[in-house]
Specification:
This protein has 410 residues and is α+β, with helices and mostly antiparallel strands. The protein folds into 4 domains: 265 residues, no CATH class; 42 residues; 53 residues, no CATH class; 34 residues, no CATH class. Helix content is 36%, strand content 14%. The strands form 4 sheets. Strands 3-2-8-7 form a 4-stranded antiparallel β-sheet. Strand 7 and strand 8 form a beta hairpin. Helix 1 crosses helix 2, helix 2 runs antiparallel to helix 4 and helix 5 packs antiparallel against helix 7. The longest helix is centred in the last third of the chain and has 35 residues. It starts with 44 loop residues before the first helix and ends in an 8-residue tail after the last helix.
């Protein structure tokens, strides 16, 4: 029997020669990007979601924190199976740990509602490599059995694209490997080829949070000048001359982005030029609008304010954070983790031939309510649970049982 070993030579498709887009039959001739199921009306929805995540502060923070909690603090496994330990510490030829791959998959899942993981082995299953693939570069082929990868779908060129079969299908490649790609996607009725981000109902809310931030920036750029109407008295010979005077006044006095409306009127005996300010008493409404958008974003993400740092300004409540973490753990985090780990466990069993069911993500709350120098039996007593001061395991300090002793933690 061939000896199983962990990644030593496999590299991602970015660093190898792949079959060209037309070399694999995927729903007929593949000469244009019409050979894939469009992700969004113009096939560029991932770009729009990425831009929104980069522009909206609260939206980005929620995505990052949610992904971090789902990725956990490392991985635990049955130490009697050293092959799994080796794989956890080095999951591919690039030296990535399994935890780092899961972290990237969790970020894509939180941002796009979709994530892609490339699986690499050979005919004899002598090694296994897993790679995260940027979800924005992936599209499902028309046959729904392949994924087409391209670095820029706005400027699609078939000679720059790669084709991989959807797991559990594997296909041989030019470098002698067998490759497949796992597609994670959030279920959504009426959407069969792509998942939908959990915050889809909050896109407008994220735009409001972004635009209220932009409004504050424009006020700073405009040196907090009052908005208003400037009435100018002048004599002009033509409409073109009047337009020129107004444009010149706007460039010199309106500020950026310009909150003053200039109106030119016919000159009379007396100069009646005047500035009519517009009451800006709506500042409070803008502030409330921004706060409301943040609250709605948290709801749209199925997340919690204290786990995203949105309530730190009003005080740091350890008990509330721990309570919301427990709720998030049992309603969101563990469910997402199982979705990510399920195919990985199956692939480990299929390719490496070992039981991967012991693979679990380590979860740890963001803060502790008990000091780490407290013994386990003391902590159980404080929580009203059964305790035994004579039990050897309960005589350990909390710092001993919370210290992770695996090499897979980044």
């Amino acid at each position: 029997m061939s000896e199983k070993r962990i990644v030593t030579r496999a590299t991602t498709t970015d660093n190898r020669t792949e079959p060209q887009l037309g070399s694999v039959s995927v729903g007929g001739s593949m000469t244009t990007c019409d050979s894939v199921w469009r992700w969004g009306g113009d096939n560029m929805l991932p770009l729009a979601l990425s831009l929104m995540a980069r522009r909206s502060v609260a939206h980005r923070r929620i995505i990052n924190d949610k992904a971090d909690y789902i990725a956990g603090k490392g991985l635990t496994y049955d130490e009697s199976i050293p092959l799994i330990g080796q794989f956890v510490a080095r999951a591919n030829g690039s030296g990535d740990t399994l935890r780092s791959i899961i972290a990237r998959l969790a970020l894509d899942q939180a941002m796009f509602g979709n994530a892609f993981m490339e699986v690499v082995t050979d005919d004899n299953n002598t090694f296994l490599s897993l790679y995260h693939r940027d979800a924005s570069t992936c599209r499902v082929a028309r046959d729904s059995k392949h994924v087409i990868l391209h670095h820029n779908w706005a400027s699609f060129r078939k000679e720059e694209a790669h084709t991989l079969p959807l797991y559990p299908l594997f296909e041989p490649q030019n470098d002698g490997t067998l490759r497949s790609i796992v597609h994670y996607k959030n279920y959504e009725p009426m959407f069969s080829h792509y998942g939908v981000a959990s915050y889809i109902a909050g896109l407008d809310v994220a735009a409001i949070a972004y635009k209220t931030d932009r409004w504050n920036i424009s006020r700073i750029d405009n040196s907090f000048q009052l908005s208003g109407v400037m009435m100018l008295d002048s004599v002009t010979e033509s409409d073109e001359e009047a337009d020129r005077i107004v444009r010149m006044a706007e460039e010199r006095f309106a500020g950026h982005p310009g909150q003053v409306l200039f109106v030119l009127r016919d000159h009379n005996d007396n100069d009646n030029s005047q500035f009519i300010p517009i009451d800006a008493a709506s500042d409070g409404d803008w502030h409330k609008l921004h706060e409301q958008s943040e609250s709605d974003l948290v709801i749209a993400h199925s997340w919690f304010r204290s786990l995203s740092g949105l309530d730190y300004s009003s005080g740091f409540s350890t008990e509330r954070i721990l309570h919301e973490y427990e709720v998030a753990l049992n309603t969101v985090i563990i469910t997402e983790q199982e979705q990510l780990l399920e195919p990985i466990r199956t692939i480990i069993g299929q390719v490496l031939g070992v039981d991967g069911t012991s693979l679990e993500i380590i979860n740890r709350p963001p803060t502790r309510s008990k000091p780490i120098y407290m013994r386990v039996w003391e902590a159980r007593k404080a929580d009203g649970l059964d305790y035994d001061p004579e039990d050897v395991e309960q005589q350990q300090f909390l710092s001993q049982i919370t210290k992770y002793n695996i090499k897979s933690v980044d």
